[in-house]
What does this fold into?
Amino acid sequence: MDFRLTPEQTQFRDSVLAFSTKHLAVGARVRAHAPDYPWDVAKLMAKQGLLGITLREADGGQGGTLMDAVIAIETVASVCPRSADVVQAGNFGPIRVLGEYGSDLQKKRFLSRLLAGEAVISVGMTEPDAGSAVTDLKTSATPDGDGFRINGSKIFTTHSAYAELILAYVRFAPGVGGIGSVLIDTKSPGVRRGKPSTFMSGEQWAELHFDNVRVAKEMVLLGEGGFKKQIAGFNVERIGNAARSLALGRYAFERARAWALERRQFGRLLAEFQGLQWKFADMKMQLDAAQLLLYRAAANADRGIPSAEETAIAKAYCNRAGFDVANEALQVMGGMGYSQEELLEYCVRRCRGWMIAGGSIEILKNRIAEAIFERSFPQRGA
Ligand SMILES: Cc1cc2nc3c(=O)[nH]c(=O)nc-3n(C[C@H](O)[C@H](O)[C@H](O)COP(=O)(O)OP(=O)(O)OC[C@H]3O[C@@H](n4cnc5c(N)ncnc54)[C@H](O)[C@@H]3O)c2cc1C
It folds into this structure.
């Protein structure tokens, strides 16, 4: 067992750090407060090979590992927290599901713009009446000639205000076995965006309505019975989500550490007060524990299918650690931490959302409990 990065991983991290320092350090604060997607960053990252790290070279990706993508998130976020979202969009979640399960036709049609940083794909699972109980989703795919008609709505979809493509979870038939997914071009007739709304992080989202949207059968990603595969793919999204929580917690920690070494009160450096030293010790323990859990989930996923249990543990722990550490680091910086002069308040707001998104902490704990007791605990009432 070796807890160090390999020489190749270290070299990769150093090159991402050099890129981030050169291109992303300036403007980090502005980016965090802009509601739009940072397209300029996406294009730079595409040139640098930071989009599609985990996708096959034959599909236009880099043929790297999930650990590489995790390292990219950590390193980018250490310079510009908001830009870590671009690494997420280009490597984890729906783009990876498309790379993994998409047909040659689907990949040819959509991947090049996504990997060039010119477009993003969203995953639309959540509906007004299907949040944690995602299998209650109602959006229907009804046969229509050699394709389908899609009817329904999605809410809270990340990137929904501007995404070019939606990987939409749909119902082909009743029950969990009837769930699959289709790729919907947002320019298709019948796709309608509702009033824009804003998350606490500042990111915009819009309700997505599908009114009799025609989808050719070639645009079915996973047909009936595809739900389990989709959720396995979703475990990868969770690793990216966990990595960003941890990375933003670490960003806040490092900033507060530097502050404690320069700010004086009562004639002493903040770092010299034991009450604050213990805060730092607690933060450091949380960050290190979270990182080990994250690396276990990512490294083992690179050796096979991501383990649902390890991923749930990593995400729940990193979500909690990222939020708690960012919040404590903000406290160490006092009024300055609470001000938009610094990015700590952004890190707190951003980390808060990941405790809900992509499987809330409570739902992940349910999954962990199932692994502990080696049985499922149906959540439905009688
Ligand atoms: C920042 C952000 C980004 C998101 N991005 C996307 C996206 O890109 N695509 C997408 O499809 N969705 C997205 N979502 C939606 C997200 O997946 C849902 O918010 C989440 O699944 C919870 O659903 P809900 O909000 O309806 O809460 P509910 O399901 O109503 O749950 C409310 C509360 O009850 C708890 N709860 C529910 N059931 C149980 C149970 N059985 N045991 C214990 N506790 C329970 C939940 O943990 C939560 O705390 C995003 C959400 C956020 C906040």
Q: What stands out?
A: Residues 252 and 331 are 11 Å apart (CA to CA). The chain has a mean pLDDT of 96. The radius of gyration is 21 Å. Residues 122-126, 131-132, 156-158, 199, 353, 356-357, 360, 362-363, 366, 379 surround flavin-adenine dinucleotide (CB under 6 Å).
